[in-house]
Design a protein that fits this description.
By secondary structure, the protein is of the alpha+beta class. 18% of the residues lie in helices and 23% in strands. It is globular.
Length: 271
């Protein structure tokens, strides 16, 4: 695929809304291989490990969520430096024009959600964590984390689309109707929230500081997505996951650098 570069209109809309939808961000043959890999997964209970990937659902309603999914096989590895979005996340979260320019994949997970599932609303500029904060200063973006949700199935009405509140990444006030994340409050009818509908192969790019969550899936079948979170090269994984030596050894240098941007510095081995 060709390397896509963010346009002036992309920058304007990302700054204004906090998100973009990238059409046809992954080729169908890759999406099909990702779905085949999901179909081949054995039954996994909450907390179980598959090699170096672990099922760790955020809430009881979010569905199957496999963290460290890059360890699940080649199709997931190929998403790391996908040319449809790599320049975008580099521009927005890669500390451009600084002495520490570069990217790091903070989290990568696979999400499979069935009917009835949802993800409660969270984030927003008010009292937001610096990790997900949005900044633009002196001509450069300085975002703490930019996420890519790749649709592996069509996601339309009733399919449990991710919802966003445009502009909320800059909010100075809490949303008075947002409910309680800890209680699992749904965001389906939350004022100001809009669904991000996508066709299979599209990607939703957004700064983590924008208010977002997953609407209720009411249709039969499954909503399948991958979520890759990119941040500056000096960051560290949120939940302490590490990457296996086998994975790091087989990755291309470009992909390995996204998982291990700063190589460990150790004294020489004594002979």
């Amino acid at each position: 695929m060709e390397n896509r570069i963010p346009s002036a209109l992309d920058d304007f809309n990302f700054d204004l809304r906090g998100y973009l939808i990238l059409k046809q961000a992954a080729p169908m043959e890759l999406v099909d291989r990702l779905n085949a890999a999901i179909d081949a997964l054995p039954p996994v209970e909450m907390g179980d490990w598959l090699g170096n990937a672990q099922r760790r659902d955020y809430t009881k309603d979010t569905g199957l969520e496999m963290h460290n999914c890059v360890e699940l096989g080649a199709p997931f590895e190929e998403l790391l430096n996908n040319p449809s979005w790599l320049s975008y996340v580099g521009r927005y979260a890669g500390e451009e024009q600084s002495y520490i320019q570069g990217l790091f994949v903070d989290e990568c997970l696979l999400s499979v959600r069935k009917s009835g599932g949802h993800h409660p609303v969270h984030s927003g500029g008010y009292h937001g964590a610096l990790r997900g904060a949005y900044h633009y200063e002196n001509g450069v973006f300085r975002c703490g984390q930019v996420n890519i949700i790749l649709a592996l199935t069509d996601i339309g009405p009733g399919d449990g689309a991710t919802m966003v509140i445009p502009g909320s990444h800059k909010s100075n006030f809490p949303h008075p109707l947002a409910g309680d994340y800890a209680k699992g409050d749904r965001m389906d009818a939350l004022e100001g929230a809009i669904p991000a509908y996508m066709s299979k192969g599209d990607a939703l790019l957004f700064v983590d500081g924008v208010m977002h969550g997953g609407s209720s899936r009411t249709n039969p079948g499954e909503r399948r997505v991958t979520i890759y979170r990119y941040g500056p090269a000096w960051a560290n994984t949120r939940f302490g996951y590490e990457y296996s030596k086998a994975l790091l050894d087989r990755l291309t240098p470009e992909r390995r650098k996204l998982l291990e941007p700063v190589a460990p510095r150790r004294p020489p081995v004594a002979r």
